[in-house]
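Running this now, will post back.
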Amino acid sequence: MKVVETIEELQQLINKKSGKTVGLVPTMGFLHEGHLSLVKHAKEQNDIVVMSIFVNPAQFGPGEDFESYPRDLEKDVRLAEEAGVNIVFIPSVKEMYPFEGGIRILPGPQANELCGASRPGHFDGVLKVVLKLFNIVNPDRSYFGMKDAQQLAIIETFVRDFNLRTKIVRVPIVREDDGLAKSSRNVNLTPDERAQAPIIHQALLKGAELHSIGLKPEQIEDEVASYITDGSTGEIDYVKLLSYPSLQPITSETDEVILAVAVKFSKTRLIDNIIM
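Update: finished.
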């Protein structure tokens, strides 16, 4: 496995393997089984797997946890090698953003819902780094987890609307034994909060049952929110039932829906969802 820090060295390595398919696994590091699941899918479908590890400042707003976002590069490199990654790209902020010309990529109405409603500018920063990675690596396929379902929907739309070469591959959420979605931020939960956190997935399962029997979206959202607040100290950021991937209100023509939640504990904010 090669570890590189510059765009030039990364592109030289990829060019030497011309004719082979490339899978990209973009991450912000502090790897867990969810990330390694992305690698597994990428290895099965490509000749070469490139993983990026970059905590992207462009997607963090004022007062968010950029500085405190968990990092462990030594462990990340070891896990990536054990998982079979071929190239790990670990750029500095200066390497990724040497200039600032003021050009912005603005997501559409999908960014006004869910996390985007309380994190203005977040998805501008996501699309900025994703486009740079797509242009740098030129991957045949790029792998994203379903836990960040809004991010995935926006990236799928971006790739479709702008005819980007890469194919986006959805990878299912990886969960702990008690149902909690794997996340780098889970390490910031206190022991008591960690014990409470599985209620988020339990609430989603309850919401899925209510959806299956035909309750209205607002009734389902209220029931799911009550289930979480009654059983935990978490503060509800949102509970939403929307069409997917458009993230708009459900209509008679909707084929796929997402039930998504965000819950704030003392030091971290957890997101989770179910697609139906």
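The longest helix spans residues 122-137. More later if anyone needs it.
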